[in-house]
Amino acid sequence: MPTDKNRATAAAILPLVGGPDNVTSIAHCMTRLRITLRDRSLVQDEALRALPAVLGVVEDDTYQIVLGPGTVARVTPEFEALVEEARAATPVTPVTPVTATAPTGPTPHAVTAEDLQAQGTALKEAQKARNATPFKLLLRRIANIFVPLIPALIGCGIIAGLNGLLTNLGWLPAVVPALAAIASGFMSLIAVFVGYNTAKEFGGTPILGGAVAAIIVFPGVAKIDAFGQQLSPGQGGVLGALAAALLAVYVEKWCRTWVPEALDVLVTPTLTVLISGLVTLFGLMFLAGEASAAIGTFADRLLATGGAFAGLVLGGLFLPLVMLGLHQALIPIHTTLIEQSGYTVLLPILAMAGAGQVGAAIAVYYRLPRNGSLRTTIKSALPAGFLGVGEPLIYGVSLPLGRPFVTACVGGAAGGAFVGLFNQLGVAFGSTAIGPSGWALFPLLDGKSSVGVTLAIYAGGLAVGYLVGFAATYFFGFTRQMLTDLNTDPDATAAAAQPSREPALT
Fold first, then answer.
1. Could you give the CA distance from residue 31 to residue 394 in angstroms, rounded to a whole number?
2. CA dihedral 375, 380, 386, 389 (to 10 degrees)
3. 211: exposed, middle or buried (Cβ count in 10 Å: 0-12, 13-18, 19+)
4. pLDDT at site 118
5. Rounded-to-5 percentages of helix, strand, coil across the chain
6. Crossing angle between the packed helical segments 134-146 and 190-201, to the nearest 10 degrees
7. Cys-Cys link to 288, which of 163, 197, 236, 263 (CB 3.0-4.6 A)?
8. Which residues contact 363 (CB under 8 A, 6 or more apart)?
């Protein structure tokens, strides 16, 4: 049974993160189980990476276990249930991992996949320490608002794409209006969900954040004038909802500092909604609407006038953003573009970074024919890489190797330039939802041209990313010393290091 498999995975993970007493919060995004820990030292990283279902581990503001799309959504509830069951029973004392005794003498040691993963983790921790600035921490909090919305965005986006296909072909005309309603319902109310999650993330009452954000999509706002202009339902979109709910959080906290406890249940919610609502109607909706329009105009002009160069820059720099975990801060921009035009033109270009990463990993595989450990890691991570899950290849292969990470970025830049060039030539297209990339993005593509042309351009961009990432890594991704150090069979080296059990010849 699939449920048994998912529960077994959760049961295998739990003791390796220090047990239920070491887990303070649990969440998940598209690919990762995100855990907040009491004591990081209790986590057994190598044992976690060795689990068949685990594609990699990443340490950021939370401890993140990469399980892949689909799997993480099934394992997380089982993991939560195990933690709750353990806490309801006799408390379990976390077991401190046993520290291995250092060998008494030097042992020849080849570079293995485990070594590279450890280097990747160390690099990640160093980057985290250097990048824990207030601004970047704020971006991560904003990402936390939108990540839970991604499954609905994907589902509605695919239905919207199917609806567009049926409309263009003239098939099933009786079904098209139903699909349109299903695809558009969530997007028409996304501001409410953004407001709810914003208040939750920043320490307010979630339902009050949702209530204030709901003002933005209320049809009756069309009767209100602000700044000499008539408001329109949805004006400001998700940016306005985020700002309105954030304001509600601060108003609520301010009220709780002076409202007597006996009146708190009546006064605080009323003042929170009233004050925040008035500011939203007569300020935030207009300002957020202008900001949203500016984002859409900038994205269109950027790709229309400098598409190839813009694609080169965006595709080349996206992997470092993924490495830092800041790529999800782009979700509000993607969502704003989807609200305005039905798709985000940026996502297909940014997805080329994953293609460069895949090409680089394949080149590493062929350049190191005698490093069985690393080649096994690459073989196991490549399927996820083709589907747009790049963390296992980044942290297990290219980043700790150094040069292949740079050449992977070169491949992403080439693919991005290819897709951007066609945007510049007038063949604009994008993704109707956010979340997937790689091959998984094909069902979400939509644009001004025919479906065949759109799919062909995106496929061409992937091919360019694969080929350039491969070539750049194959020819420029290694120094001679790197090839000497890495191109060794770890098992053979370990065997050579063991003392011989044959009798000595005399």
1. 14
2. -110
3. buried
4. 61
5. 70, 5, 25
6. 130
7. 236
8. 404, 407, 469, 470, 471, 472, 473, 474, 477
The more confident residue out of 198 and 322 is: 198
Q: What is the residue whose two structure tokens read 């049809």?
A: 219
Query: How many Cβ atoms from other residues are within 10 Å of residue 195's Cβ?
Result: 34
d(CA 487, CA 339): 50
User: In what helix (H) or strand (E) does residue 35 lie, and over which residues does it extend?
Assistant: strand 32-37
DSSP 132: -
Q: Which fold has domain 1-92?
A: Gyrase A; domain 2 (3.30.1360)
- Is residue 409 part of the annotated active site? The answer reads no
Give Cα 82 distance to the centre of its chain. 26
Gap between the Cα atoms of 326 and 89, Å rounded: 39
* CA 125/CA 395 separation, integer angstroms: 11
Q: Which amino acid is at 228?
A: G
CA 84 to chain CA centroid, nearest Å: 27
Q: Which range among 330-339, 378-387, 414-423, 445-454 has the greatest average pLDDT? A: 414-423
The catalytic position among 29, 156, 255, 409 is 29
For 41, other C-beta atoms within 10 Å of its C-beta total 9
- From CA 485, how far away is CA 110, in angstroms rounded? 7
Domain positions in the chain are 1-92, 137-292, 318-491
- pLDDT category of residue 132 using cuts at 50, 70 and 90: low
Token readout for 400 is 């700790």
How far, rounded to the nearest angstrom, does the alpha carbon of residue 268 sit from its chain's CA centroid? 36
